[in-house]
Write a structure and sequence with these properties.
Layout (H helix, E strand, L loop, with lengths): L3 H9 L1 E2 L5 E5 L5 H11 L6 H10 L5 E5 L6 E13 L6 E12 L8 H14 L3 E9 L3 H9 L3 E6 L9 E7 L3
Parallel strand pairs: 5-6
Antiparallel strand pairs: 1-2, 2-3, 3-4, 4-5, 6-8, 7-8
This protein binds acetyl coenzyme *A and zinc ion (ZN).
Acetyl coenzyme *A binds next to strand 5, helix 4, strand 6 and helix 5.
């Protein structure tokens, strides 16, 4: 039939044996499903155009996880963007890969879906010549902090009252080994 989604699965879809999910790139058709997962699982909501601009600019690292049996059923997503900021010890601008958001539907958690999304998106965002991967996470978000530690992200600083409800964030980073 050759829809966008099918050719996307052919060119990129990753089938994990012994699991019930596949990983593939997000397309414009998938954005509503991504937003649904986000709104269900995270208090940080973004307007549609924000997702669309991430998709337009960083599609190679905007991945979704779908049910193997039902590839239209989105169960998780990950999205990144590149930011250019002054490096710590000079005014030189460096690229950083910023993990904007990751979430997995509750009933599909602890099966390696988030790990698969991270593992398959980090090489793509790394191609933007970044010095490090960075992210913020709620200091109370034990599952996510554990996930990032498993991928060797380290707590760098605390961002006070980073979230609208006043909670602090850990700023976690992982240097790219060059
Ligand atoms: N308790 C302790 N450690 C956990 C937990 C948990 N509930 N969940 C995951 N981990 C850690 C473990 O080290 C785990 O490895 P293990 O299972 O071998 O012990 C590792 O993370 C990998 O687990 P996955 O199965 O790959 O993770 P999962 O698919 O369950 O997704 C996630 C983890 C994304 C944090 C999920 O719980 C979720 O969607 N939470 C709600 C949304 C959220 O908090 N997103 C992150 C916000 S921060 C940001 O987006 C930058
Ligand atoms: Zn952030």
């Amino acid at each position: 039939m050759g829809t966008d989604k099918e050719s996307n699965i052919r060119s990129f879809g990753i089938n994990f044996p012994d699991t019930n999910f596949v990983i593939r790139r997000c397309t414009a058709n998938d954005l509503d499903g991504v937003i649904e997962v986000n709104e269900r699982e995270l208090p940080e909501d973004y307007p549609y155009f924000f997702y669309k601009s991430i998709l337009d600019n960083y599609s190679d690292s905007f991945l979704i996880a779908c049910e193997k049996e039902n590839p239209n059923k989105i169960i998780g997503y990950i999205m990144w963007r590149i930011e250019r900021t002054p490096s710590v010890n000079s005014l030189e601008l460096v690229n950083k890969g910023h993990l904007v958001s990751i979430a997995i539907l509750e009933q599909y958690r602890r099966k390696g879906v988030a790990s698969a999304l991270l593992m398959n998106s980090m090489p793509a965002i790394e191609k933007h010549n970044i010095s490090e991967f960075v992210l913020e996470v709620r200091v109370s978000n034990y599952p996510a902090i554990n996930l990032y530690k498993k991928f060797r992200y380290k707590i760098n600083t605390i961002k006070k009252q980073y979230y609208r409800d006043g909670e602090n964030a850990y700023y976690m980073i992982k240097k790219v080994s060059k």
